[in-house]
């Protein structure tokens, strides 16, 4: 595709176009401490196109012209990744791409967010087993079954699987896939000593859900450090 044609894929005066939204959302995520030090980010799938930010760049400073656009689904899962658009600059697509793809393929997600939030990291340290669990918190109601289903109730226990980190982000693909199959109701996957992946049926729901989960990781960590139980047998 000629570059002017492919530039049209990321050029729009609509602030809700994914190429405009991703830079704006990343600026907000940076100020929450979710995407500092270049890590983390968000991908948006709109119909048959996926929008992905570059790897290893300051995520709060990305521009619509830095965006990669990929066809969804990809023509072959075994062949090299196919792009509808690559930026003119010498940039590589986010190393999170295969992880974002897990959310699109396994949950039909419209967006997936990866944060390096310290709340998520601390939760993986204070819950040394394979699950983060918390009950009886109002913000549980902001989390959906499987990330894209109906909302949980105040009386549901929130369970988020924890997978072990790998030296390279893309090598998390398989263990994230396994966790998503084993925990079909989970709205996200924590990565020990690293962060979290959260998805939703669109970017608004993915963002709101990431905010609720991040709040629950933070409050869970504080409760644990205060010696309070994070699971109640009964309430009130
Ligand atoms: C200091 S970031 C280390 C790599 C990482 O965890 C990450 O999320 C990288 O994402 P990118 O989009 O920059 O490839
Ligand atoms: Zn990361």
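^ structure tokens above, recovered residues below v
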């Amino acid at each position: 595709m000629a570059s002017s044609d492919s530039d049209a894929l990321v050029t729009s005066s609509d602030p809700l176009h994914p190429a405009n939204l991703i830079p704006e959302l990343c600026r907000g995520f940076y100020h929450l401490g979710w995407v500092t030090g270049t890590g983390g980010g968000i991908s948006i799938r709109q119909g048959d196109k996926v929008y992905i930010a570059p790897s290893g760049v300051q995520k709060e400073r990305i521009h619509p012209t830095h965006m990669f656009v990929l066809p969804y689904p990809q023509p072959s899962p075994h062949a090299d990744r196919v792009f509808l658009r690559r930026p003119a600059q010498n940039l590589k697509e986010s190393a999170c791409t295969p992880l974002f793809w897990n959310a699109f393929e396994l949950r039909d997600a419209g967006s997936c967010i990866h944060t390096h939030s310290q709340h998520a990291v601390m939760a993986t340290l204070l819950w040394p087993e394979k699950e983060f669990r918390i009950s009886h918190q109002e913000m549980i109601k902001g989390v959906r079954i499987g990330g894209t289903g109906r909302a949980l109730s105040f009386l549901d226990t929130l369970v988020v699987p924890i997978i072990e980190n790998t030296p390279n982000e893309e090598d998390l693909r398989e263990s994230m896939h396994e966790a998503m199959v084993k925990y079909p109701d989970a709205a996200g996957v924590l990565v020990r000593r690293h962060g979290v992946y959260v998805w939703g049926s669109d970017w608004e729901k993915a963002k709101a859900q990431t905010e609720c989960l991040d709040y629950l990781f933070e409050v869970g960590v504080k409760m644990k450090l205060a010696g309070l139980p994070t699971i109640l047998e009964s309430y009130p």
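The CA atoms of residues 95 and 170 lie 6 Å apart.
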